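Anyone up for a design puzzle?
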């Protein structure tokens, strides 16, 4: 069973113009969703959920010739097999917990789709392109694992900013790292989005940066380490370069991390050796 759920009042107002909700208020709609989910879960159905995003839904309907006000269009959108990644499975959460989780899942899926397209374009076609794609993904996962080991135990945030191959488009992603005894388990959809985004940057060879916001254990604040992405490889930044990158982030509209302690990055695994005359990564 697949359902598409509206998670934001503004989105509900946009979609109500298509006559999807029969005059219900957003509050009444959410009550109906909660009842529906409890009923389906109580009868043993596995329910796959998708955030109902107005722009994405309207684009989907236009591409396939659906009337956005047709209930069949909403059903088809909920079950779209082209949706990136594994389905979001309802696990009995209250709506107050479920809606933010579903919004986060949607954001990660969008990042995965955009980064996957950039990775495919950067890797190229044919068997050499296939090999480069696999190498880029393998190296991105290897880098994430090495960062987790170097970060030390605790709760960390890992971010990446890089450029894809098309018109200098900027790709961004972030994932949480919970490291225990030197190991970090996979972090779900955000972790997948981070690795695909990093792989796209490595394969494209564009400029970028990766920052590790460590657990708040450094003297006087929270350690931030960084690596510059150049030529398909991550190079440790100096503490000054990390500070400059944080300042640049402020210029891009991000808040400066409170009590940040810029520290140098540590060495990371080198990318695979060149094969088949490939580009920056290999």
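Challenge accepted. My sequence:
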């Amino acid at each position: 069973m697949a359902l598409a759920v509206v998670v934001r009042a503004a989105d509900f107002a946009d979609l109500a113009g298509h006559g999807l909700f029969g005059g219900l208020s957003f509050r009444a709609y959410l009550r109906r969703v909660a009842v529906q989910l409890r009923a389906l879960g109580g009868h043993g159905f596995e329910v796959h959920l998708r955030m109902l995003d107005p722009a994405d839904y309207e684009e989907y309907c236009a591409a396939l010739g659906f009337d956005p006000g047709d209930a069949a269009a909403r059903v088809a959108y909920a079950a779209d097999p082209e949706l990136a990644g594994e389905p979001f499975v309802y696990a009995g959460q209250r709506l107050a917990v479920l809606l933010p989780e579903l919004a986060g899942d949607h954001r990660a899926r969008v990042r995965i789709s955009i980064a996957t397209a950039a990775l495919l374009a950067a890797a190229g076609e044919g068997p050499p392109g296939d090999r480069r794609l696999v190498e880029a993904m393998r190296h991105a996962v290897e880098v994430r694992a090495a960062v987790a080991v170097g970060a030390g135990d605790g709760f960390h945030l890992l971010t990446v900013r890089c450029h894809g191959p098309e018109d200098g488009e900027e790709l961004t992603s972030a994932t949480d790292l919970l490291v225990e005894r030197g190991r970090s388990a996979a972090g779900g959809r955000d972790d997948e989005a981070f690795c695909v985004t990093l792989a796209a940057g490595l394969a494209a060879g564009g400029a970028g940066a990766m920052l590790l916001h460590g657990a708040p254990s450094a003297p006087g604040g929270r350690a931030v380490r960084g690596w510059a992405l150049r030529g398909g490889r991550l190079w440790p930044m100096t503490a000054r370069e990390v500070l400059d990158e944080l300042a640049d982030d402020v210029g891009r509209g991000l808040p400066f991390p409170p009590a940040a302690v810029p520290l140098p990055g540590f060495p990371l695994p080198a990318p695979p050796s060149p094969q088949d005359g490939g580009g920056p990564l290999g």
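A detail worth pointing out: The chain has a mean pLDDT of 88.
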